């Protein structure tokens, strides 16, 4: 296909065999090497890892819960954000530490207000499906500058005003992403 003779390619192929990038087998020919580049192997593994394989349990609060209760949940669960759901359990919004801090700072009535007053509302919530790759999830986190994403599946309930409804099945965070990178770096 390249229009090159075998003797011309032989020295290049011999070098690739010595590096372990390809294997030479008599009567078979050349195949991908068993000592494939660790970086290439790691990136293939990362591209094939799905969110559902690494997601954590969601930390959920109802939209009628008070801001005070949300702050307590945030600290008790040791998370950076809470996923807010409606009475049917569908994604309603998300509330972060920053949201709570901005709302409560200097506001004496903040603790009794419902979280629905403070949260980022759906459809403005960035989320991910369980079947997306962790690379896609990481891109969303970086592009939208968020620390975590709710993992959602389409709800069996009807849409509200043309907006799809989502059931929350998990969450993926920067900590999970960092753990994935660390596991790859140390070869687990």
Automatic annotation (TrEMBL):
Keyword Ribonucleoprotein attached: no
GO molecular function: kinase activity
Family annotation (InterPro entries): CBS_dom (IPR000644), CBS_dom_sf (IPR046342), CBS_domain-containing (IPR051462)
CDD domains in the record: CBS_pair_CcpN
Key words, A-Z: Kinase, Repeat, Transferase
One Pfam match: CBS
Descriptive protein name: Histidine kinase
